[in-house]
Amino acid sequence: RQEILKWNGWGYNDSKFIFNKKGQAEFTGKRYRLSGMVLPILKEWMEKTLGASLEHKITSRTSLNISDVPPSIVNEEFLQDLRATKISYSREAEDRVFRAHGHCLHEILVLREGMFKRIPDIVVWPDCHDDVVKIVELASKHNLCIIPFGGGTSVSSALECPADERRTIVSLDTSQMNRILWIDERNLTAHIEAGIIGQDLERQLGESGYCTGHEPDSMEFSSLGGWVATRASGMKKNIYGNIEDLVVHIKMVTPRGVIEKGCQVPRMSTGPDIHHFIMGSEGTLGVVTEVTIKIRPTPEYQKYGSVVFPNFERGVACLREIAKQRCAPASIRLVDNAQFQFGHALKPQVASIFTSFLDGLKKFYITKFKGFDPNELCVATLLFEGDREKVLQHEKQVYDIAAKFGGLAAGEDNGQRGYMLTFVIAYLRDLGLDYYVIGESFETSVPWDRVIDLCRNVKERIVRECKEKGVQFAPFSTCRVTQTYDAGACVYFYFAFNYRGISDPIHVYEQIETAAREEILANGGSLSHHHGVGKLRKQWMKESISDVGLGMLKSVKAYVDPNNIFGNRNLL
Amino acid sequence: KKRDEFEDILEERRQSSDLRYAMKCYTPVIYKGLSACKPSAIKNSVLQSEQVQYVIKQLSKEMGESADIIQEEATEILDEMGHNLHIGAIRFFAFSLSKIFKRLFQRVCVNEEGIQKLQQAIQEHPVVLLPSHRSYIDFLMLSYLLYTYDLALPVIAAGMDFLGMKIVGELLRRSGAFFMRRSFGGNRLYWAVFAEYVKTMLRNGYAPIEFFLEGTRSRTSKTLTPKFGLLSIVMEPFFKREVFDTYLVPISISYERILEESLYAYELLGVPKPKESTSGLLKARKILSDNFGSIHVYFGQPVSLRTLASGRINRCPYNLVPRHLPQRLSEDIQEFVTDVAYKMELLQIENMVLSPWVLIASVLLQNLPAIDFDVLVEKTLWLKGITQVFGGFFEWPDNLCANKAVTSSLALHTNIVSLVNGQVVLNDMGIEDGATEELIFKQALSILMCGAYRNQLLNVFVRPSLVAVALQMTQSFRKEEIYNCFNFLRNMFSDEFIFFPGIALKDFEEGCFLLTKCDVIQVTPQEILVTEKGNSAASFLAAMFRPFMEGYQIICRYLSKETKETFTEKQFILGIRNFAFQLLETGSTQCYEVLSSDLQKNALAAFVRLNVMKKMKITSGLTYTVNKEALSKTEEMFESQIPKRKLVTARL
Ligand SMILES: Cc1cc2nc3c(=O)[nH]c(=O)nc-3n(C[C@H](O)[C@H](O)[C@H](O)COP(=O)(O)OP(=O)(O)OC[C@H]3O[C@@H](n4cnc5c(N)ncnc54)[C@H](O)[C@@H]3O)c2cc1C
């Protein structure tokens, strides 16, 4: 798998945004619906919105500079013990660097133009639960540090090695533990090894007519174990639930031994749920090896949809009402105006399903007759799933509610396009980096009554901080509401800015990111809805869960892993 | 410190048609996030707001009254309060105020840079205007200025006593003023409706909110200690992050001659103030339609509330309770509000323009009953120098010679002083014989009127002056001892003058620094020495505050003689007044200013604060008792100044 993925950016080697000879943006490869297409407006958008220019390009190095890589220090006795287990391992520089990071901006920048201070000394590939037990025993025996590695999509610095870790760091790559061990059709559960990658899981279950329905945007690359370890959330949680709703049973190997429940039941009252110590433990307690997860028959029918609202406030009000009536479709997302315009910029040349509704008649209709301001309007994308009749009924219900908030149905194509974009949007950062544009996303959850205020204030804060820090072009600062709940919503922000003329962009970037998080917290938002804490957001843990709360987690850690074998130092 | 230039706006008014000016195209810039709506829509959204509805429900539950009836009541409150922007009324005001202002004032000067900054601010974030309050003219003038510069007219939280003035009241309302009752302490419904009304205005960015931190017009020209209620209301939307930021704009309005000057002096002496009726105001205007000199309005730099709050506010309390529930301010928020209020008042003080007359009044009051004109000019110039070192703000053109400045000042204030045979005399002070009560009253009037102008200097002088007083009182070189005394005075006078809370040492150091800067003292790590040259200056600076020193001492003496166990504020004030009259009649004091009810009330507040007196609530109101022990200690602290020995002079 490592072979077909970029070593210094997001996703597959063959898929990336480039500017072709004609100076037009193009998305390469064949994997996505957008692949091979020319995006004529993107260049102008980048110039206008971010002040980027094709003349100012950075060429980053094309391959890893092996001599920069910190040496692998592993003691011989451990190696002997390891060989005896027959578990495969590697001490190659590429393998170790590949597992030294996740996908935070600063990590990618280090890959492009620097080197990590500390990376794993050795990578091991256990094949099954028992292999993991052996590795953890050896690590305890030789006092090593283990960092579990799933898909490597972390965006919280969770995979970064603590620079001052003196012990040998073992990266425990779960990718070989990727089998579906059994499917129980009567109870609709499946027992699966934790290293399986999202898309493989859904494909394989699909062959038997099932799915989990758990679809985080990173599902092409992230693993089941990673989801459990970070408390992940999938796009279609309205039907299937978040990871905590999906798991029925978890097996985790810790230095104290294996932790698991004695039965596989829908619910039990046996004190605090031990699953909740495991979920979100971010690799600090042990390795999740096997998970029993709920499955559902693959839905008969899927339908995309979209609604345009005159402004963001009306859109949020509509989402709130839909949540209140508990009739949210599998997915419902509301993007603000800036992101709506950005989506427009990704419009490909070929007219197909991609025709934007801002074109032709519809644009005329929306702006002239309905009086929508093109610089105010925003759009919700919808995904319905289920049996056909119910979907159509459901669809009508949702559109009726939308109409009460001035929402105008804007077609299936736009909906589908919106979801497709979420998969390719991650590739866009790499393009930006070539042109002095750095960007990142972050998320939060917030009570309904504060959604509007939070969105406005955080975006404004970013703009203001950029200005204060000497960023010369106004940043791209945008948000979308990506999940709805009874009591609130999940909000996802993107921000990007052009750093030409700034001497220490990464520092400036970090200050702005910190300020944005402070702003979120001051607006009553959470530290994280699904990305987790890692090392990036540790500083706010105390204020998030109180002193005593932190103490509780620490005492669990102290019992389960007294020698800090799982020493990635996330969370606490 | 660099300050902006002024521009006289009346100049243009004198040259072009007032009617055309009143009918000009008026399109003020607006807040970028404004959602345009009619006053009636605002009223409705206030009434329907979760906040008001919550209180209505609560009250209905508690009193067993139907919610509809309470809702009705809320509507009435809102109607009484609600402003009503009416372009016709604005134009009427623009026209008539042009006429009136041109008659009353020589110049109305504004710093246009400040206006520009304000214009910028209005577009960015909700704006709160915080002018100083010396006169009814204040808010008329501000609205007039904003209209002149094509800025959005503010909605003003003005006292209800205007409602008595039928026509003016209605006109004011139509030009944007809204009204609050002077006191509505217990009325939760009123408070809820009022607070929500203000916040709705603010959140929508509908128009700048204007109110007076001082709460009421200062009768003494000293800045009054701030009130916090309205300020905490306008800060709340930011605390709850309903707005990204809020700009606070300190505005300093200085009058060369205050319209209400004699009215205030009467009030201070306890002659009941005439009810603010329309005819009263008009009559006052008629009588006083002589020359009132210049007005200076200085719009300060808009202060970002967000910047002030950064790092200071723990957000938790607002995250854990729904935002529409009424919530007690947490302690650190209360402290923050207090600090902001003081900071804003200090900014007002910093940008108050001082006229030459203010210096003259100060000199004259130390040279009663009369002073040689030439000496007066010389001393005025000398005092000007010191004032500038202390950061005082003059509009005194370089080429204007002191002689002229003094002469024209005297001409402007003939009701207070007169020039007789080369001598400048405070009116009514020359008469020697027969210290009758009526004469004393007359003299007190003159002194209080004159004092009101000297008072404009006091907040600029208070830090260095209190150091000078402390030097005089302690008769010591030792810094520590002097500081202790300074601290005592600062505490005692913290209702009298504006001190930023909790920074006594910094204030002391600033005082010392300023005295050093004008060569009055020398400071070593342990000691403070008065220079030979600085002796007279030190005496002068200390003497500026003598009325307060002596006034408080007299009150102490009165209290130690007081035999009643408990008494009310009214009894207290009456008692002191009689006591003071006696002293003045027998000539055993010259401290006329102890007759000022302002001083008396401040002393009362100070004594309660310092536990010299105890305040108790009984059914019929508040009563006070004296703690004799604490009182005699305080007296001692004051007495140490007497006998007045000569200042210790450093041998240099
Ligand atoms: C473009 C993009 C889109 C994303 N979209 C979403 C989204 O929609 N929803 C969402 O929830 N997240 C999302 N994420 C974040 C990330 O994909 C999730 O946190 C994911 O759950 C991480 O899984 P992983 O397998 O990649 O774990 P890794 O990144 O490899 O590891 C993450 C953490 O979990 C630990 N860990 C991994 N596997 C195990 C295991 N088997 N046992 C114990 N600990 C383990 C690691 O030590 C590390 O601390 C996104 C990230 C990117 C880059």
Secondary structure elements and pairings:
The complex is a heterodimer of chains A (572) and B (652).
Chain A (H helix, E strand, L loop, with lengths): L16 E3 L5 E3 L9 E3 L2 H9 L25 H10 L2 E3 L2 H6 L6 H9 L8 E4 L3 H14 L2 E5 L19 E5 L6 E5 L4 E5 L4 H10 L2 E2 L12 H7 L6 H4 L2 H4 E8 L2 E3 L15 H4 L8 E8 L1 E2 L3 E9 L2 H13 L6 E5 L1 H9 L14 H10 L8 E9 L1 H17 L3 E2 L2 H23 L2 E11 L3 H18 L7 E9 L3 E11 L6 H18 L18 H20 L12
Parallel strand pairs in A: 5-7, 6-7
Antiparallel strand pairs in A: 1-2, 2-3, 4-5, 8-9, 9-13, 10-14, 11-12, 11-13, 15-17, 15-18, 16-17, 16-20, 19-21, 20-21
Chain B lengths: L6 E2 L1 H6 L2 H5 L16 H10 L1 H14 L3 H15 L5 H18 L2 E4 L1 H13 L2 E5 L5 H12 L6 E5 L6 H9 L2 E4 L7 H17 L4 E2 L18 H11 L7 E9 L5 H8 L9 H10 L6 E6 L3 E2 H5 L6 H4 L11 H20 L2 E2 L1 H10 L4 E3 H17 L3 E2 L7 H11 L4 E4 L2 E4 L10 H38 L4 H14 L11 H14 L3 E3 L4 E3 L4 H10 L1 H16 L4 E2 L1 H17 L11 H13 L3 E6 L2 E6 L1 H12 L13
The complex binds flavin-adenine dinucleotide (FAD).
Flavin-adenine dinucleotide binds next to strand 6, helix 7 and strand 13 of chain A.
EC number (chain B): 2.3.1.42
Subcellular location (chain B): Peroxisome membrane
Subunit structure (chain B): Part of a heterotrimeric complex composed of GNPAT, AGPS and a modified form of GNPAT.
Shape of chain B: globular
The strands making up the biggest β-sheet of chain A line up spatially as: 18-15-17-16-20-21-19
What binds here, in terms of ligands, is: flavin-adenine dinucleotide
* Percentage of residues in DSSP E strands of chain B: 5-15%
Outline the biggest β-sheet of chain B.
9 strands, mixed
CATH architecture of the largest domain in chain B, by name, is 3-Layer(aba) Sandwich
Q: What's the N-to-C terminus distance of chain A?
A: 32 Å
Described by strand count, sense and barrel closure, the largest sheet of chain A is: 7 strands, antiparallel
Number of strands of chain B: 19
* Number of helical elements of chain A: 18
- The CATH top-level class label of the largest domain in chain A: Alpha Beta
CATH topology of the largest domain in chain A: Alpha-Beta Plaits
Instruction: Indicate the percent of residues in helices of chain A.
Output: 25-40%
**Largest protein interface, residues of each chain:** A-B, 13 and 10 residues
Subunit structure (chain B): Part of a heterotrimeric complex composed of GNPAT, AGPS and a modified form of GNPAT.
Catalytic activity (chain B): dihydroxyacetone phosphate + hexadecanoyl-CoA = 1-hexadecanoylglycerone 3-phosphate + CoA; dihydroxyacetone phosphate + an acyl-CoA = a 1-acylglycerone 3-phosphate + CoA
Family (chain B): Belongs to the GPAT/DAPAT family.
Enzyme class (chain B): transferase
